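Severity: low
Component: inverse-folding endpoint
Summary: output formatting inconsistent between runs
Steps to reproduce: submit the following structure tokens with default settings.
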């Protein structure tokens, strides 16, 4: 890409989009275009067409999506499939009609089957049933990557689909009901810590930024305590749903941005399959760290990272995070990674001659002891980035929960299974 080329980043205020925008700026790209949701509704086909008519972008990065955590995916199934299909159809369609040189489509590892063999390779797509909880979202993302693949094969376009693992970082969504597991855990533990220390100014600031079911910082102490208790947050303990056993892989959003920009600069559609192949499919690219961690281990790290002892942690080369949850993010990032790395996974299709950090996924034997020790057996492994994931346990009916004792600053995992109907949806 030329440094002066016009690049449209859809979703440039979001977790991934903002990281990609900053990465492009740091690399010297000077002609970036972005629109907020208020300025451009990507569900509106006519508005998207008008935007492309006026701006004529040469490159497009589609990082906009309707996303949420396990509860949101369960409750709003129609919204997740309809809105994501509509966004993808509008942006990819107008990119084709306006002769965009290259497009990057961001998907999710939830596209893979629930029971896919670990580590998951691109070729396991559509080989067995998806995780039920987020099936509509996954089907929409599969449609997006197949749309890119199909346009490339029929019209010779250069649209690349990338599938990142679970992401976290600045501009994440901390909604207690709709967010993904890591930001939800960070916010819960942060609020529990504030309540434990009697820091009501911090609690009210948090509630004003992100009200919970209409309760914000202007409400009474009793009302705030009541709504937070509903979500398992008190000054004595924080309750986290699940057994804590499922394994998840997490990637810092700025590392995802680094990989995304690298692909825009150096990887074309023709590089994603073997020349002469009879059937060209599954040309998307997995992006992750190659490391996994149990939810219980992750919760323990968040507790440790959020303690008020010791110096402020920096997130490697990514600079300081300046608010309370940002400090926790930085601490978790430093504890999880040790240093900033990323891996673009294409099985054996990319290897020699790659820059540092881009290559094949490392095996479990290469992980630090901290991440290997205590790893549950295969049957307890979650399906990559998909929510749920304790095999043999139908988590629509049974869930365990973990408790973090904020008084003793200790983490306890209770293998206590309760029916969901006894605790609410």
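Observed output (run 2 of 3):
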């Amino acid at each position: 890409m030329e440094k002066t080329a016009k690049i449209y980043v859809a979703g440039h205020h979001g977790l991934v989009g903002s990281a990609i925008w900053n990465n492009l700026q740091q690399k010297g790209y000077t002609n970036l275009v972005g629109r907020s949701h208020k300025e451009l509704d990507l569900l509106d086909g006519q508005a998207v067409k008008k935007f492309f008519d006026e701006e004529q972008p040469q490159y497009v990065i589609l990082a906009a999506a309707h996303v949420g955590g396990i509860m949101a995916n369960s409750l709003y199934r129609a919204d997740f499939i309809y809105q994501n299909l509509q966004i993808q159809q509008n942006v990819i369609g107008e990119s084709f009609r306006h002769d965009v040189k290259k497009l990057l489509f961001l998907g999710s590892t939830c596209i893979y089957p629930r029971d896919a063999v670990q580590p998951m390779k691109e070729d396991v797509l559509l080989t067995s049933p998806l995780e039920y909880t987020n099936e509509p979202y996954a089907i929409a993302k599969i449609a997006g990557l197949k749309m890119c693949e199909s346009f490339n094969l029929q019209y010779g376009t250069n649209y690349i689909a990338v599938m990142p693992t679970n992401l976290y970082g600045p501009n994440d969504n901390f909604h207690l009901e709709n967010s993904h597991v890591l930001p939800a855990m960070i916010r819960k533990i942060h609020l529990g810590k504030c309540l434990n220390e009697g820091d009501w100014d911090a609690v009210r600031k948090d509630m004003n930024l992100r009200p919970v079911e209409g309760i914000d910082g202007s409400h009474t102490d009793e009302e705030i305590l009541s709504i937070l208790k509903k979500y398992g947050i008190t000054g004595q303990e924080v309750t986290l749903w699940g057994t804590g056993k499922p394994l998840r892989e997490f990637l810092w959003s700025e590392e995802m941005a680094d990989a995304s920009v690298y692909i825009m600069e150096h990887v074309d559609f023709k590089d994603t399959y073997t020349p002469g192949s009879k059937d060209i499919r599954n040309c998307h690219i997995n992006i992750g760290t190659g490391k996994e961690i149990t939810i219980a281990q992750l919760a323990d790290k968040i507790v440790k990272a959020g303690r008020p002892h010791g110096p402020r942690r920096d997130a490697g080369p990514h600079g300081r995070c300046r608010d309370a949850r940002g400090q926790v993010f930085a601490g978790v990032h430093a504890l999880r990674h040790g240093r900033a790395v990323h891996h673009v996974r294409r099985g054996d299709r990319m290897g020699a001659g790659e820059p540092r950090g881009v290559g094949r996924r490392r095996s479990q034997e290469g992980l630090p002891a901290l991440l290997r020790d205590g790893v549950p057996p295969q049957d307890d492994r979650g399906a990559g980035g998909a929510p749920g994931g304790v095999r043999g346990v139908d988590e629509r009916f049974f869930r365990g929960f973990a408790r973090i004792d904020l008084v003793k600053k200790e983490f306890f995992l209770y293998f206590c299974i309760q029916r969901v109907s006894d605790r609410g949806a």
